[in-house]
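Practice problem: predict the structure.
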Amino acid sequence: MERYMGLDIGDKTIGVAISDPFFITAQGYKTIFRTNDKDDIKELLKIIEENNIIKIIVGLPKNMNNTIGPQAEKVYKFCEKLKKAISAEIVFQDERLTTVSAERTLIEGNVRRKKRKKLIDMVAATYILQAYLDMY
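Answer:
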């Protein structure tokens, strides 16, 4: 069954979320601790293949005034490399404040600070993917 994948791409980690086969809900999948672009893409390819991913929704960290900053440029550059390795479509989704929302959710769930660092990007990826699914 086909699914969508949500990504929250940061400098140190990539949060990964995957939709259900009906494209209704997003579930956290994992956090990839980044080493280098080649290995990070290899890990994503494995997830894409195992889960029959047909579309990737990537969080785009725009500035609050809706401009593209240095972090968004890094995301674009990484996605250009990813596009060369996959056939799935890549769509960008505004991700402003998703990390803030993810952290609030984890705090409300009484998740300890050390564990939050490991989960926050995966939860943010879930928010990114769910926002996309809710629009369509």
